């Protein structure tokens, strides 16, 4: 077990020897590898077990994954963002993560992206964090730069590249001058000074996020955005210290992680989201992901949020129930680091099995939480747990069920 997890992570249902009806403590287990003698009938850890990482305790293992709303103006979060995140916090998730938040204006995917490149962005984000915390959940934020996938139209307007200032677009940067899609203008290749500015922007954004009161920071190194572009040999053709070998391609992600960990208080966790594979021959793969996780752990990264794909538009992804979960388990076991599983996890029993089976430490839900903001409360009923209703709802709901 990691030294940063406390004994409350070893809670299990009462047994015949425990007549109090309360959960009891068990022997410690490691946060990375699952134990060989795992008992599915009486699991040591399940979907509603708390988890403490550093000094932050999550009330269960359910996470609202970051999902772009494309509804900001000049980077400012607004009432929509507050209600979007806040309703899932009231709905019982343990961790609610603000969508990919741009560290520079040029790092936005669309003109509607939330930003954190200016001190004036702090208070609207702080308002969100305060409300999430008031509901018993933990507020987190994902820091991002879109790289060659920046300067795009809103998805409900088609999502096409905004190639000129007249269209509302801006200059796009990347590790190499290779466009995301055929027919798009080539991005500008970042030089050393440009890379240094990106690292500085992540650091400044992290400082603002901490000022806003977020208790978990996540670095976005997935889905074909800038940091992922440096990782993949399909998008990174550089010949300098940031290209070529695996060590070189990982360099920028490691620099960003090291810089953020150095400024964060010891009690606050740092996550990194990755795409475990590009789903394309010759691209970034799970072996590289394991190596990256092994390199991130000694830098103080606490969890790898394991997604996949989105680097190239031609990838053929075998989307199915829990299709990315095996990547989370492999990284957890081989790198001995906490992981989060995400992707086509919609059923409470399946989500519970991801945790009880040792596949991952957390379950990240995305579209399913768009369909059902109170998924976590309904999952508690389905798994015969006590739902953590907001007091304004709970007194009425519980009275009606008696």
Please tell me about this protein's structure:
The protein starts with 10 loop residues before the first strand and ends with a helix. The chain has 402 residues and is α/β, with parallel strands linked by helices. Helix 6 (286-296) links the parallel strand 11 (270-275) and strand 12 (303-307). The chain has a single domain (43-401), classed as TIM Barrel, CATH 3.20.20.70. An 8-stranded parallel barrel has the order 5-6-7-10-11-12-13-14, surrounded by 6 helices. The chain has a two-stranded antiparallel sheet with strand order 1-2. A two-stranded antiparallel ribbon has the order 3-4. Mean pLDDT is 91; it is low at 1-30 and 33-40. The chain has helices at residues 79-90, 122-134, 192-211, 226-231, 246-263, 286-296, 325-335, 348-356, 367-371, 375-382, 391-401, and strands spanning 11-12, 24-25, 51-53, 56-58, 62-64, 95-102, 138-144, 173-174, 188-189, 216-221, 270-275, 303-307, 338-342, 362-365. It is built from 11 helices and 14 strands.
Detail the topology: elements first, then pairings.
Blueprint: E1 11-12, E2 24-25, E3 51-53, E4 56-58, E5 62-64, H1 79-90, E6 95-102, H2 122-134, E7 138-144, E8 173-174, E9 188-189, H3 192-211, E10 216-221, H4 226-231, H5 246-263, E11 270-275, H6 286-296, E12 303-307, H7 325-335, E13 338-342, H8 348-356, E14 362-365, H9 367-371, H10 375-382, H11 391-401
């Amino acid at each position: 077990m990691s030294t940063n997890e406390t004994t409350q992570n070893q809670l299990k249902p009462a047994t015949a020897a425990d007549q109090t009806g309360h959960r009891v403590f068990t022997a410690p287990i490691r946060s990375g590898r699952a134990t060989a003698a795992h008992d599915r009938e009486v699991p040591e850890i399940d979907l509603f077990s708390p988890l403490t990482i550093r000094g932050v305790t999550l009330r269960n293992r359910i996470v609202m994954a970051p999902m772009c709303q494309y509804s900001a103006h000049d980077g400012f979060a607004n009432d929509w963002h507050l209600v979007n995140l806040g309703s899932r916090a009231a709905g019982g998730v343990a961790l609610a993560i603000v969508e990919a938040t741009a560290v520079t204006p040029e790092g936005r995917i669309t003109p509607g992206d939330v930003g954190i490149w200016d001190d004036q962005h702090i208070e609207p984000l702080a308002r969100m964090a305060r409300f999430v915390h008031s509901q018993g959940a933990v507020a987190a934020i994902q820091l991002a730069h879109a790289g060659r996938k920046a300067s795009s139209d809103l998805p409900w307007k088609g999502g096409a590249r905004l190639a000129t200032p007249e269209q509302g677009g801006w200059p796009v940067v990347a590790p190499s001058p290779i466009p995301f899609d055929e027919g798009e203008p080539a991005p500008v290749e970042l030089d050393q000074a440009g890379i240094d500015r990106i690292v500085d922007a992540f650091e400044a954004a992290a400082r603002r996020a901490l000022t806003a009161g977020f208790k978990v920071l996540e670095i976005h190194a997935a889905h074909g955005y800038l940091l992922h572009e440096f990782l993949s040999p399909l998008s990174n053709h550089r010949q300098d210290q940031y290209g070529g070998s695996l060590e070189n391609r990982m360099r920028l992600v490691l620099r960003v992680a090291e810089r953020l960990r150095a400024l964060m208080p010891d009690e606050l966790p740092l996550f990194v989201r990755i795409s475990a594979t590009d789903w394309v021959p010759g691209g970034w793969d799970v072996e590289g992901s394991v190596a990256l996780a092994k390199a991130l752990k000694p830098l103080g990264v606490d969890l790898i949020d394991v997604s996949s794909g989105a680097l190239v538009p031609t990838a053929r992804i075998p989307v199915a129930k829990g299709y990315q979960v095996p990547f989370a388990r492999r990284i957890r076991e081989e790198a001995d680091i906490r992981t989060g599983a995400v992707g086509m996890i919609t059923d409470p029993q399946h989500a519970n099995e991801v945790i009880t089976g040792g596949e991952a430490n957390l379950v990240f839900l995305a579209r399913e939480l768009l369909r059902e903001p109170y998924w976590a409360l309904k999952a508690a009923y389905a798994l015969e747990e006590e739902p953590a209703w907001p007091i304004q709802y709970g007194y009425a709901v519980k009275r009606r069920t008696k």
